[in-house]
Design a protein that fits this description.
- The complex is a heterodimer of chains A (about 375) and B (about 450).
- Chain A has about 375 residues and is an alpha/beta fold.
- In chain A, about 35% of the residues lie in helices and about 15% in strands.
- In chain A, strands 3-2-1-4-5-6 form a six-stranded parallel beta sheet. In chain A, strands 7-8-9 form a three-stranded antiparallel beta sheet, covered by helices on one side. Chain A has a two-stranded antiparallel ribbon with strand order 10-11.
- The model of chain A has no long low-confidence stretch (mean pLDDT about 95).
- By secondary structure, chain B is an alpha/beta fold.
- Chain B has a seven-stranded mixed beta sheet, with helices on both faces. Chain B has a three-stranded antiparallel beta sheet with strand order 7-8-9, covered by helices on one side.
- In chain B, helix 1 packs across helix 8.
- The chains are: A alpha/beta (about 375), B alpha/beta (about 450).
- Chains A and B meet through helix 2, helix 4, helix 5, strand 6 and helix 6 of A and helix 2, helix 3, helix 7, helix 8 and strand 6 of B.
Chain lengths: ~375, ~450
């Protein structure tokens, strides 16, 4: 399968900040070259690691994010080889400010697209500031509002490194727009992503636009949100379920279910159909809902709630997903091979298309393709 | 309208059936880069952002009729779109919608797959009137009706716990804190939808063939968990929440500063970070932590000592000290901080644009910045049905009489009293917060 971006050559000089973007580009058919230093991409140093495989080929982050790409090693001092490679690229992914970068500050060629993913962008008082997944969330307003009030606030899903993946996905959107623009005008350009702005773009629900409207200082609200009721995590026999009732039809079904399961007759009263009333009476509503949820397991509540048309899901960990009946039936999981040929389960394509868009090869060995590109 | 001649999506018309965030966030991005995005709206089953309204409007009976145009989400998720009031559940409204669809390039929707099919806007039905359409849908669980979760319903904040994100959030010894205040799966699905839409347009423009893209939010969010799936398959390891710590080194955390609820986030996980941090903390942290293995093994005690050190600093001052030395750190910003953050404002993150209903409105900008073809905002969010008549006339080619008939048959609607306007409470001082904005007294 050729893929929609076959014929496009991409050089990725980033680590985690661009990794998810170039993974998708590779899956969509582009020729993606990961430029590595002799000691390897920073991704290769990220655990978890596969047992029985020696570094630098054992990182599972590398094995996942570098799938379908090619590895070319160039010594940082070897600017000639670097330029030889860069001038053939349609797209270059970067994560350094011009003055700190080994890449040329000026134009590589008039048709090159340069995609820069930077902590705080290339301008402004914090342009030189460093970042991390945690720091990006801190700078968005989201970290401040996540967690319980008796403990320090927490980053959302910290181990996932979402701030990086969201930045990479945003960078890919910009890159594809620039490629479309180049097809029409023949000209390359720069795409710039500030990781802070990416996390700010995910923040509207807790962020400045809502704050300007209600002028209410936001504190952490634990695992529930006062936008509706029930809204958030509710305890059950073996953990928690997530319930979000905003729409009137969802409330009607929810109230009926609580009423049937617990004999609560008050909950079906007309007054509670108004979401604002339920938020006012949130403690009462939460108590009533918990009388129902504590009777069942995650799976029982998920299946029965969904049968009733209520937005309810289990609070899962990864073991509940590998083997999930829907994902099995949908044939979602696929596999790749590690460097010692171990076959390992991985998520399938991030979306499905009626045209054959997606294919993936295993991640390359350090320097596996150097000889092809540097003669 | 600003000239869109140079924009990458000039000439692209999008038919959007969006609710809340996932599809609307994608549509807003496409509109920013030049697409003509038509938000198809219903009074019978309105987008939830039309129901939410605005906090300052709560007790204003006089403005109740235009409440649906006042939620901050209207502009936040729909800036630069046009709003078309069409009741798809009526025969007349559906006919007009299909006529309009024949003139569009992209179909974008995050209705549930079953709801979309029941409305008669599944891929086959849409392709029947527009065979080359780029059709992108974001149902919670995919559009294959033979799959077990096909009829299931979930909002973005329900998708996060389903794939493990809520279990990943919180301190190790607490119950899951969950991600109560935002919905990452909505935004990640939206970004994938934008990637699929642009890819589909390129395919259509170069080969003439349209495409159907099915973005199951369940699957899309799982695609971000690759290394954890692999480790589980290989070793049976199930990762869970670890507070703000890093799986790759220490210290990393959120520490208290002077004042009430003032916190600083610090990441110093690399060896050279520690050398730098040591030069700042001096004797406040025990010498044994110069050994990286002890830093990793005894993070509780390390964090306690760092917290004792940070707690005597003013937070903004400490963030600047750490960053000046080269350590990743930031104030755990509140909304109040962000409104006065000169970095955020110098990059013009918050935008102000004209609003038909509110005079002007504020919304977040776009995190994707292109140097040669920067996007633009033509307007803030539309009022409900603001553009019904102009689109049915200009795009579908209906006469004024035909549009009147459609409206009286209940198939379409226009905005309520077009000249009824309100002003947000902040209107008089927004120029102080969003640089370059006109002082209201000069408007």
């Amino acid at each position: 399968m050729a893929g929609p971006y076959s014929g496009i050559r991409v050089v990725d000089t980033t680590g985690l900040s661009g990794g998810y973007a170039t993974r998708l580009l590779a899956g969509l058919g582009a020729e993606v070259i990961r430029l590595e230093s002799p000691d390897g991409s920073p991704l290769r140093r990220l655990g978890p690691f596969a047992e029985n495989i020696e570094p630098p080929e054992n990182s599972l982050w590398w094995s996942y994010l570098a799938m379908g790409t090619r590895s070319v090693v160039i010594d940082p001092q070897d600017t000639e080889s670097l330029m030889q490679l860069l001038t053939t690229a349609d797209v270059v992914f970067e994560d350094q400010l011009p003055e700190k970068s080994a890449l040329p500050a000026g134009e590589i060629s008039p048709t090159t697209i340069r995609t820069k993913i930077l902590p705080f962008g290339s301008s402004g008082p914090k342009r030189n500031w460093h970042t991390s997944n945690l720091v990006a969330w801190a700078a968005s307003g989201i970290l401040y509002t996540t967690g319980f009030t008796n403990r320090a606030p927490v980053a959302p899903a910290a181990p996932m490194q979402l701030a990086y993946h969201a930045s990479a996905a945003s960078a890919l959107v910009g890159t594809l727009l620039a490629l479309r623009s180049r097809r029409m005008t023949g000209r390359g350009q720069e795409v710039e992503i500030s990781m802070q702005e990416v996390t700010l773009s995910i923040a509207p629900e807790t962020g400045v636009p809502m704050f300007m409207d209600d002028r209410v200082h936001r504190e952490r609200t634990g695992n529930r949100r006062d936008l509706g009721r029930p809204f958030g995590l509710y305890p059950c026999k073996d953990g928690f379920v997530s319930i979000i009732v905003l729409m009137p039809r969802h409330w009607t079904a929810m109230a009926q279910w609580v009423s049937e399961a617990t004999g609560n007759e008050s909950i079906t009263e007309e007054v509670f159909v108004d979401n604002a009333v339920r938020v006012e009476a949130k403690d009462l509503i939460d108590d009533w809902v918990e009388e129902l949820t504590t009777q069942g397991t995650r799976l029982e509540l998920f299946e029965e709630g969904q049968r009733r048309g209520i937005p309810i899901t289990p609070v899962n960990t990864i073991d509940a997903l590998v083997g999930n009946p829907h994902l099995e039936a949908a044939d979602f999981w696929t596999t790749t091979h590690l460097q010692d040929d171990t076959e390992v389960t991985i998520p399938g394509a991030p979306f499905r298309s009626s045209s054959p868009w997606w294919s993936m090869a295993p991640a390359p060995r350090l320097g596996e393709h150097t000889h092809i590109y540097l003669s | 309208m600003t000239d869109t001649d140079d924009l990458p999506l000039k000439g692209v018309r999008v038919f959007e059936l969006g609710i809340a965030i996932a599809s609307p966030f994608c549509g807003k991005l496409l509109a920013h880069f030049g697409a003509d995005v038509l938000k198809i709206e219903s009074r019978m089953s309105p987008d939830v952002v039309r129901i939410l309204g605005s906090a300052w409007l709560k007790d204003r009976e006089d403005l109740a009729p235009i409440s649906s145009d006042t939620s901050p989400y209207v502009s936040e998720m729909n800036a630069s779109k046009r709003s078309v009031g069409l009741e798809l559940k009526t025969k007349e409204g559906k006919t007009a919608a299909l006529q309009l669809l024949a003139e569009c390039d992209v179909f974008l929707a995050n209705f549930g797959a079953r709801a979309l099919a029941e409305l008669g806007f599944d891929y086959d039905s849409v392709a029947a009137v527009n065979p080359n359409i780029v059709y992108v849908q974001l149902p919670g669980f995919g559009s294959d009706e033979t799959m077990p979760y096909y009829p299931f319903v979930a909002w973005g904040p329900n998708q996060a716990p389903l794939v493990g994100m809520d279990d990943f959030t919180g301190h190790a010894d607490d119950p899951p804190a969950g991600i109560a205040t935002i919905a990452p799966p909505d935004y990640m699905s939206a970004l994938h939808a934008a990637i699929a839409t642009i890819t589909g347009l390129e395919q259509r423009d170069t080969t003439g063939e349209g495409v159907h893209v099915d973005i199951s939010q369940f699957e899309t969010t799982l695609a971000l968990l690759g290394p954890f799936v692999m480790d589980y398959d290989l070793t049976g390891t199930v990762y869970s929440r670890i507070g703000n710590r890093s799986i790759w080194g220490a210290p990393q955390g959120v520490y208290p500063c002077t004042g009430n609820e003032r916190w600083i986030a610090i990441s110093a996980t690399e060896a050279e970070d520690w050398t730098t941090l040591r030069s700042l903390v001096g004797q406040a942290v025990d010498a044994e932590f110069d050994d990286a293995s002890i830093r990793n093994a005894d993070q509780d005690r390390l964090d306690e000592q760092i917290a004792a050190w940070t707690s005597s600093f003013e937070v903004e001052d400490l963030a600047h000290r750490l960053q000046a030395a080269g350590i990743a750190a930031h104030v755990v910003s509140t909304n109040e901080d962000l409104l006065h953050d000169t970095h955020v404002t110098s990059r013009e993150w918050y935008q102000v644009a004209p609003s038909n209903r509110l005079g002007r409105d504020v919304f977040s900008g776009c995190a994707v910045k292109l140097s040669a073809t920067p996007g633009r905002w033509t307007e803030a969010g539309p009022s409900m049905g603001q553009h019904t008549r102009e689109i049915l006339s200009d795009v579908v080619g209906l006469s004024d009489e035909a549009i009147d008939d459609l409206i009286s048959a209940g198939g379409a609607f226009e905005q309520i009293e077009p000249d009824m306007v309100a002003t947000r409470p902040w209107n008089d001082w927004i120029h102080l917060l969003v640089p370059g904005t006109e002082d209201a007294r000069d408007l």
